[in-house]
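Sample log: S-adenosylmethionine:tRNA ribosyltransferase-isomerase.
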Amino acid sequence: MRVELFDFDLPEENIALRPENPRDSARFLVVRPDADPVLADHRVTELADFLKPGDALVFNDTKVIPAQLEGIRHREGAGGQQVSATLHMRTEPDVWKAFAKPGKRIKIGDRIEFGHGSETCLLGSLMATVEEKGEGGEVTLRFDRSGPALDEAIMSVGHIPLPPYIAAKRAEDEKDRQDYQTIYAREEGAVAAPTAGLHFTPDLFAKLDAAGIERHFVTLHVGAGTFLPMKVDDTVDHKMHQEIGYVSAETAERLNAVKARGGRIVCVGTTSLRLIESAAADDGTIEPWSGPTGIFITPGYRFKAVDMLMTNFHLPKSTLFMLVSAFCGLETMQDAYAHAIKTGYRFYSYGDSSLLFRKD
C-alpha cells in the first residue's frame, strides 16, 4: 500500500509533553466500527464499562532502561568526536545493537567512551568497541562490561530516551524516570515505554478487578526502531526492526482458556498485540513464544487472536497508524483521528488513549 494513504496533519498543540495527572484521567476515544455511533468520547477511568466479566487484558511488562548514551569516539590518528547512541536490542550479555549519531563518521574498530566523568559509575566511564555497522546509523557495540555489571553501568550513565517529538521541545528530567514507566514494569530491556499502559493506576486496577476482568502479562522489549520514520513510498519496501519478546506457556494456556469460554482478549498497546499475533497459530490458538519478532501489520492482515486494542494516538505515516487502520479499517481510523484532532485530544506517548473494537 502507498504510505501516503496514512498521512494526516497534526497541529503542534495536540502533541502532549507531559502525561495527565492522575494517569487514568486521560481522555478515551472508543471506536466501534460496527456500531452506532462509531465514535464516543470517554475517560480512561471508564474502561471497565466496555468490558465484560471473563475478558482478559494483556499487558506488556517490559521496563524502560536509560538507553540514551552520550560519549566520545576515539580512533588512532584522529581526535575525539562527540557521539550519541540509543541502545535498542541486546544480543549478548555484553553486546547491544544501537542507533548512533553521527552514524556515517563511525567506523568498525572505533572505541567509544560513554559517560565520562560520571560520579556514580565506578568506572567513571563505560567503554565499547564498534564491531559492525548496519543501515540507518545502526551499529553493534561490544562493551567492556557484561551482564549485571553492564546493566548497572548503563543505569548510571544513561538517560531516558524520550521520543524525538518530545525531546525536540524539552530536555529529559528526573520526573520522566517515573512518568515514562508503567506501574507494572518489571522486565528490564525496553528503549521505549509501551505507552498505552502509562494510563493505568492502582485505582483503575481495582475497578477492573471488581468487574471480573483478568490481567495477564507478556514481555516485548520495545526498540528504538519504533521511532524511526518510514522512508519508503510503498509498505512492501519497509523492513521492520526486530524486537525480543516472550509469552510464557502459562500465559498462553490461560489466554486460550479465555477464548474457549467466549471471553475477549484485549491488548493494552500495540506491543502486546504484535507479540500475541506473532505467537498465535492460524486457528487463533496462542502458543508459548520466545525470540525476535518483526511482524508488520497493515490493512488486509487477518487478526488471529486479539479482539480489542487499547492504544494511544500515533504518528502520521507510521507503522502503528497502519496497524490500527488494519484493526478498525482505514476510513474509520481517519475519521477517528480527525475527530480527535478537532476536539483537542493529546497525541503520542504522553497523550490520551483510545479503545478499538476489531472490525469484523
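Observation: The longest helix spans residues 330-342.
Observation: The domain at 68-159 is CATH 2.40.10.240 (Thrombin, subunit H).
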